[in-house]
Amino acid sequence: MLSGIVIISVVAIALGSVANTFSPRAIPWVTEWDNKIETTAREDGIQVVDLEGMRKVVEAGTHVLLDARPQVDYEVAHIPGSLSLPSTELNTTFPQVQLLLTAEQPIMVYCSGRSCTESLRLAHFLIEQGYSNVYLFPGGLQQWREAGLPLEVGH
Amino acid sequence: MARGWAAARGRPLSRVAMKVMAPRRPLPTVRIVLWLSKIVLVGVFIYAAIPKINDPRGFAELIYRYQILPGLLVNVTAIYLPWLELVAAVSLLVPKVREAAGLMVLCLLAIFTAAVGVSLYRGLNISCGCFSTDSQVGAIGGVTIVRNLFLILMAGMVYLADTAPPKESERAVH
Known about the structure:
The structure holds two protein chains of two kinds.
Chain A lengths: L1 H21 L13 H8 L3 E2 L2 H10 L3 E4 L3 H6 L6 E2 L5 H9 L8 E4 L7 H11 L5 E3 L3 H7 L9
Parallel strand pairs in A: 1-5, 2-3, 2-4, 4-5
Chain B lengths: L1 H7 L6 H7 L6 H27 L1 H11 L4 H21 L6 H24 L20 H22 L4 H6 L1
């Protein structure tokens, strides 16, 4: 039994190692995932905002807030004043949101938390569309909720 | 032994005695169920492994979203786990290692189910990453748990059948 487990494990490790060495889709053996979204956003020139900054933005109402999560999650709970713009349905939903935006309009994007990537995808999309003032709140709804800040429900 | 003893005494075995002492094999229905379970497990594991092997980056992202592993282990897991699924599944059909493969498949399913259960308990709304690396496909839920429990049941049956010692009568015949 033990020898069988060793054989299967060795074969799997060998195949995985070969695949990740020679495959065009190879990934780094180690990535610092814990700050990946934030780091990537900064590297791509997207301005990153912490919880306190986000709270001020929501209170001041200076930015258009965009929730990049799926519509169903948005309807369950979202940060007050934000609009739903799921990063997977940009073709259908962006034309409606676009009417509210100007090229210099400050835009804040967020998703569920530090492990989600929808907000980063949405930020990239907005920059490609020509919007220059795109901000990202990497803590997302999770950090907002954990801080006990108010939430909105529904549309 | 008994057959030899009776024969040595020159007495023919009764029909009942012959039936009792005949090697006991699982009933045909049970054998069919076991084979079907094994084939389903092999198919499901191969079907699950291929998209992850084709898209390790996407799979790594899904693993990270579970927030169970430290960030440093995410990529290594994304690289090797699909291959372990694939090799363990194919090994279910290889007589020499099928017991080990059965145990590994069972353990993998138990780990996957525990990960989904913990994530549901923590209120995470994430993609399962079971058969796709698309983060918008196959959100975890009660259905995922039930499906995994069904697969665990099949894997348990296959493992027990493969590891069951031969019956006394079978040993006597062999």
